Amino acid sequence: MTDLDELLPAIAAGDAEAFGRWMVAAEPSLRRSLRRFATQVDTEAVLQEAMLRVWQVAPRVRVDGQGNSLLRLAHTIARNTALDEARRASTVRESASDELDPAAVTVSDPDPFLRELIAACFEALPPTPRKLLQLRLEAAGGVHDKVLARRAKKKLNTFLQNITRAKKLLGACLQRKGVSLEAT
Amino acid sequence: MNDDQLTELASGAFRERDRRTGRILPSPAWHDLDADGRQALYEHTVVSRTLEAALDPDGRSSTVRAVLARIRG
Q1: Beta-carbon contacts of residue A132 (< 8 Å; ≥ 6 apart)
Q2: Which residue of A has its CA nearest to B62?
Q3: Nearest CA-CA partner of B71 in A48, A60, A122, A112
Q4: Domain for residue A182, yes or no?
Q5: pTM higher than 0.90 for the full model?
Q6: What is the rounded distance in angstroms from the CA atom of residue A38 to the CA atom of residue A95?
Q7: Do A46 and A75 share a domain, yes or no?
Q8: ipTM surpassing 0.90, yes or no?
């Protein structure tokens, strides 16, 4: 398994690009770890909050020689952030356990073949869903969909329906190519 | 707004931040979903982030890009 601690010195020195590369490899594993909290907390908000906390504590993290020290710490931070949020929302159902399952800590490598397939399916989308999904992608979580819909001169509901349609069409296109993106 | 629209709205990476504490806030749309809807939202978001990362030249999902934007202020 790739050891993301190679990026730790740069991250600790405040290199946001290095932290971006770390997040690309760490996000799927961290998101999977939050699946058990999906009905209790907004896992997207928890994951973003946890990533920010990881960035803040990274300068104080010491590599322990077991590999992926920062990622293992990130799993603990994500879990604790989820528990805090669940307590705040009074939805907590998770039994407390400090044990981190080592098998849950995984690093994601880029899949050039999948990227190629998805890019080809994206290009094959009908114009309106493609344009609106492109708007959403370019906004990168920085702009509310209400604003994006207004910019596209669409009602919010119409905007959202088109994004959903675009994703369904992408999924169907990938299925035809033998690829399923269903969450595991 | 129906469940599909709430799910799509909450599956985006946009999240408000508490002005006082800086805490990233849950999507209001997430609050409007029941337990089954929240589980479906989770699955929908996993697929969405995979698609986004594949379509980004640096492999960054909208979650990664949103966090980087916050770090850079």
Answers
A1: A148, A152, A154, A159, A162, A163, A166
A2: A140
A3: A48
A4: no
A5: yes
A6: 15
A7: yes
A8: yes
Q: Out of A48, A122, A182, whose CB is closest to B66?
A: A48
DSSP code, position A120:
H
Which residue has tokens 């469940």?
B3
Supply the range of the domain harboring residue A159: 112-176
| Residues constituting chain A | 184
Q: How many domains does chain A have?
A: 2
**Minimal Cα–Cα distance from A174 to chain B, Å?**
11
Picking from A40, A44, A51, A116 by the largest number of B CB atoms within 10 A of its own CB, the best residue to mutate is A44
Q: How far apart are CA A11 and CA A9, in angstroms?
A: 6
- In this complex, is the C-beta atom of B24 within 8 Å of any C-beta atom belonging to chain A? yes
What are the phi and psi torsion angles at A93 (to 5°)? -135, -5
Are A89 and B26 inside 8 Å of each other by CB?
Answer: yes
pLDDT tens track for B13-50: 999 999 999 999 999 999 999 999 999 999 999 999 99
- Distances from the Cα of B69 to the Cαs of A52, A89, A168, B6, B44, in angstroms? 11, 27, 28, 25, 23
Does the residue A160 lie in any domain? yes
Residues A33 and A119 reside in one and the same domain: no
B5 CB within 8 Å of a chain A CB: yes
